[in-house]
Amino acid sequence: MTLELSDIRDFLKRHHPFGLLPDGALADLPSRLTARYFRKGSVILDVEQTCLHLHIIRSGAVETRDPSGNLLARLSEGECFGVRAMFRGGKAANRITAIEDCLVYQLPEQDFHALAGQYPQFSYFFELMGGARLRGGMQLIEERDDDQLKLMSLRVSDLIARAVVSLEATATIREAGQRMSSERVSCLLLMAGEKIVGIITDRDLRNRVVALGRDLNEPVSNIMTANPISIRPDAYAFDALLTMTRHNIRHLPVLDDGKPVGVVTTTNLLARQSLSAVYMAGNISKRDTAEGMAEVIAQVPELLSHLIEAGATSQNAGHIVTTLSDSTTARLLMLAEEKFGPPPVPYVWLAGGSQGRQEQTALSDQDNCLILDDAYDAAKHGDYFKAMADYVCDGLNVAGYVYCPGDMMAKTDEWRQPVRVWQQYFNKWIEQPEPKALMLCSVWFDLRPIHGSTEIFDELHRMIRTKANGNRIFLAYMVGNALTHHVPLGFFRNFVMIRGGDHHQTLDMKHNGVIPIVDIARIHALGNGIASVNTYERLHAAMQTSSISQQGARDLLDAYEFISITRLKHQTRQIREGQAPNNFLHPDSLSAFERSHLKDAFSVIKSMQNALETSFGKSGT
Fold this sequence. Notes:
single chain, 621 residues, alpha+beta, Jelly Rolls, CBS-domain, Beta Polymerase, domain 2, 4-stranded antiparallel beta sheet, 25 helices
C-alpha cells in the first residue's frame, strides 16, 4: 500500500462507521475512492441532481439546505453526505454547499451498497439518521442478564398470580380461616363494600388466634392489620420488594384506583431472585446511627459500577441508587421521632432535585424540605421541627449525602414551613419569575414525598400544576432560563470543551448534557399539568400532548439515555481507578462510535430546545 493510500486508510479508521469494518475491507477501501476539491461557496450537490457516490469530508465543511432554503445541517471532517440521494433513486433531495474549501472523498454507489450488504454495522449506520440513528445505537449496547434489572423491568401486575381472595370484615375468624383453607392462600383481604379495610395472614391466625386461645366466633376485624400498606400495579417489582423489606411484611396488596386487584408475596418476588440494593435498604433500616448508615452508603459506588457493568439503563440505575437515599432519609426521620417524641402536627418530608426525580448517581448532595400542616404554630412547634430537620440533614451529611451548597435543605428555616407559606412561595415564583425564582423552580418543582403525611403535599401539588398549566408568561421565562444551558456542540458539530482550570478540555456531562433535557421535560410537564417529576415519565406523558411531537419526545428520551449512561460509565471508570467520580468527561476516552452518537444526542437537544422556544417561549405567547 502506498503512503498516500495508507494515510487515507488511517483517516477512515478514525471515523465511524469505517472504523468498524474488518482490516481487510478497510485496507481495500482507499483504492476505490476518488478525491475531489471544492472551493468555498461552490454547490457540490443541488436539488434533483444525480448523485451516485457517498461523499466523505476529509477537510473543510459543508452545509445542507432544503429546497426552500432552510438550513438543515452543517457537516465537517469525517462526516458523510449523499446517502439519502442514493436511497431515493440517485436524486439529491437538498442542496449541499461548501462553506469552507473542502477535500471530499467519493465512494461509488456500487461499492457503497456492496459494503452495506456485507457488513451490518456499515448498513445500520447509514440506514438510520439523527435521533433514529441514536436510538439504533442504544440498541447496540449489550444487554445482560441481572436479577436486579429483571425486577426493574417487571411491573407489579406481572407478579399477580391469581385473582383477589377477599371477605367482608364483618365475617368471623372461623369463616376467614375456612376461606383461606378452601382457597389455599396465605392471606385474605378484608373489605367494607369495595374498599379494603384490612388484611389477615396465616401468621396472624397462628400468633393472634391460636397462641392466645381466642374465640373463633369473634369478628375477623379484631385480629386484622387495618389499612395495610399497598402498591399500584404499574409500580416496579423492585419497588414492591423494597417496600416489603422496609416494612418487614410478606404480603402486599395491589390497588388500582383504590380497588384491590391482587396480592404480591415474598414467594412471588424471591422466585425472581433477590437484590443487593434491597438488602442494603434493609440493612439501613436496622441501623440506629448515621455512622452505621454511612457504612452501607459507602457501597453505593460499587453498586452503581455493578449495575452499569450488568447492562442497566440510566433509568434503572438512578431508581435503584435513589432508593437508598430514600431509605436513609426515612430511617433518620423514624429515629428523630423516637428521639424527640411524636410530631405535634402532621408533616411530610420531601426530596427535590435528582433525588425527587429518582435520578441520583454516585455523586449526590442534599435537596430536601419540610412541609407542615397548617395547624403549625411556630411558637409552640418550631423547636421540635427545627431539631428534627437538623438531626436528619446532619445525619444525611454524615451518611454521605453532603449538605446542599445552596442551603436548599429542611434545616434552613425558609424551607421548613406550613402549607400556607409554601403556597405563597409557589404563587410568587409563578407570578414573578425573576432569576432567583427560576433557579428555585429547578429544585422545588421536582418534589417527591419521602416520609410523613403525603396528603399535605397532594393539595399543594394540585395547586402548583393548576397555576403553572398554560401560564404562558411563566413558561416563557422558564424556557429562557432553560436555554442558558448550552449543549457543548459547535458550529460544525465539533465538541466545545471547557478551557483552562481543573477540567481543561473536558465536557460537563451534567450541566451541558443531562440538565438541558431535565429542563425541557420539566417545562413540558408544567405546561401540560403533568404530575410526574421523573424525566422519563414526564417525556412519555408529554407525548400525549400537542406541545411536543412523539418523534421529538422519543429522540429526546434516547438522547437522555445515551448521555446519562455515558456519564455513569465515566463515573464507574473513575470509581474502579480509585478516583472520586465527577461529571467531566474527556472525549478522547470515548470510541469513535460513542463520540459520533454523543454528537447526535447533543444535536437532538439543540433541536428540541429550539422547538421548546416555539411551543412555550415568548414568540409562542
